[in-house]
Amino acid sequence: MGRLGQGVRAAGGAAGERLGRLRDYLMAQPPYKRIGLPLLWCVGAPLAVLLVWVLILLPFTPGVADLKQTRAAKASILVSADGKELASFEEGLQERVTLAQISPHMIAALIATEDHRFRDHHGIDFKRTLASVLHTALGNPQGGSTISQQLARNMFPEEIGRARNINRKLKEMITAVKIESAYSKDEILESYLNTVPFLYNTFGVEMAARTYFNTTAAKLDILESATLVGMLKGTNYYNPVNNPERSVQRRNVVLSQMRKHGMLDDKRYDSLRRKPLRVSFSRQAERNPTDTHFTAYVRKWLIEWADENDYNVERDGLVVHTTLDSALQEAAEKAVERQGNALQIVADVEWAQSDSGSGSAGGYAGMHGSITPFEYFWRSKGALVNSFIRETPEYKKAIESGDTGALALKRLRADRAFIARLRAAKTRLETGFVAMDPETGHIKAWVGSRDFHKEQYDHVVQAARQPGSTFKPIVYGAALGKGFAPNRPYRDAVMNIKAGDGTVWRPTDMSGSSGNMMTMREGLVFSKNTITAQVMQDVGLPGIITLARGLGIRNSKLESVPSLALGTSPVTLLEMVNAYSSIAAQGEYRKPVFVTRITDRAGKVVAEFGSPAPERAMSSQNAADLIDMMRGVINRGTGTAIRYRFGITGDVAGKTGTTQNNTDGWFIMMHPKLVAGAWVGFNDNRVTMRSNYWGQGGHNAILVVGDFFKAAVAEGKVDTAALFAGGRRPEPVRQEDNPGDISEEAGEMQQEGVAPPPPPELDPDDMESEEAMPMEGERSDPPPPPPPPESEQNAPPASLDQ
Description:
Helices cover 43% and strands 10% of the residues. 42% of the residues are buried. By secondary structure, the chain is an alpha+beta fold. It is globular. Helix 15 (326-350) packs antiparallel against helix 29 (701-714). A five-stranded mixed beta sheet has the order 2-1-5-13-14, covered by helices on one side. The chain has a five-stranded antiparallel beta sheet with strand order 7-6-18-17-16, sandwiched between helices.
């Protein structure tokens, strides 16, 4: 210790001696040198360090060759849970334009606000940089980047980095100087205005002009230009669509900068700043040949995520890991295609002639080549045809150009190409399908229509339709939650039910009422409206709505009216399948998950999205009892096709659904490891399946789910030995045990004492006889006789062969 102490004292003495000599030297100098030399050292030392730092960073910034070529961007991709590529972002929303094709207002607003000495510096505005440092030190952060620096950041986000630190700023400055040596000022402006991001996967001023103002870059006026330039400070924060008040404030800051730098006089500025924000937002189409409804949904979500997290989905090479199972997705797509095509043939043939008949899908397929699809529908519904026409953009355009309603109708009905498009759109049968894992909430398969490239409207998450009897399990689940036993008896009889407004409702069933006592279990198995309505009365609508929300119907509005119990309040397919998944998960709700994580091009995880904690919606015992009641739907109720047509022997439960006039067909089935549901119908609910047999969910939507599950079992994706809690393996299916078809009544309740709604009013200019205006190419003979009685239409087909 003694030697160590001596060493420290010796070192301290030497340092003190040197400092003493330095002090003596300074004291011997003139006064100005005594002050100047220390100051010079304080400034020079950091500058020397900065110079060394710049020299070190120089090789790590893009070179002139890189600037000339602009490195090839790597598109972000979406992959399935098993690693197969689903879609990519190779084609973004960008259209390059020359500087001459950009409004002078846009260029003036940009320079005045972002870099008013742009024409004078060589990439770095030292005066502005020092001012921004000073303001930031005083607690008022300000940006000091020139347009060239911002362009460097846009062109090379990975090389320069995203972290807000000195290292990034120096790289940005070095690259900006290189850009200035490689490009002219006009080339820099043009490149910047073509690459700057404007949200919604939109890059460059041309696409921004189309997206926010429905115009072109060349036609942007001064207010529109100021609004877009204002977004550059924070595209999300100053988004004129979501944050209009902030956008107006920022736009006016841009206008004030233009006034400050002599581009506007005081009078013009004062007039402009008072004008309202005029946005004409139209998100640009971004369909990709590999897109499906699922990838389009994830694509939209990813763009918003990337905007908020400063990523470029076109150039940053992100890998988005989704929950989709490629084998299950393929099975779903094939089921939708196969069964959707077969059901389209059924609809085509049944609506082709006055006597629709009733037969098997195979029989209809044999007739399809000799009929004109939907011919009887079009010839017998003249008023509806005119309504369709009046709702088209073509009709509205004709009226705006001065045509009368009658003249516009006559012209459009004579337009063969227009009528062909209208017929094809209105009579195309659609299908939505989704499957999810009830234990995790992971989406495993998603098909939004029969063909994404013909129909982008997503029947999984966009279309809200009446769920019919698929809503009934929620009513019975609420009853179980109130302490009712599955065997609680009710009389199968038509009852008067008073609504809150005093009107009387009388729910009925297609099969009629027996007057006998039935249990709640039987009421659900045989989809009895009379029983369900009485259960609803005993439970109360508030309890039913609360359970529906808890299970997963969280976005759609649920009307608090008696008919809610029979599924008259529109919901989405995803919400309904989510609700059934919550039941299958023993009463625990899990928010649907479609992305698990995002990695960068090097495989590093940049974001993870774990499954949210489950929320208890109903007790596990009540969920088990409800599942057991719904097993009966598959074994002896309206869902027997699952066992006897598709041969599925696992522990499954589910429910069919049908709405008024065969408008919507539903079927959702639960397995311990997979829940799947399908909807079948037409986009326009004034077009429906014709016969009551093929219009039922137990005869249309069930085919899609059954086909899917059969393929999933064959692929080994569904374990038929898996059991629900307290479940047991079902007995082998024997054809002689088939209970036959059970009819299902639609969800509409008949209201007494209220006059029926009046027919839609005709356009005053359209008072001609509808039959006097046949479509081009049609016969003008008298309309055919009415369709056959319901008793004939309800007859089951000769077979279920398909």
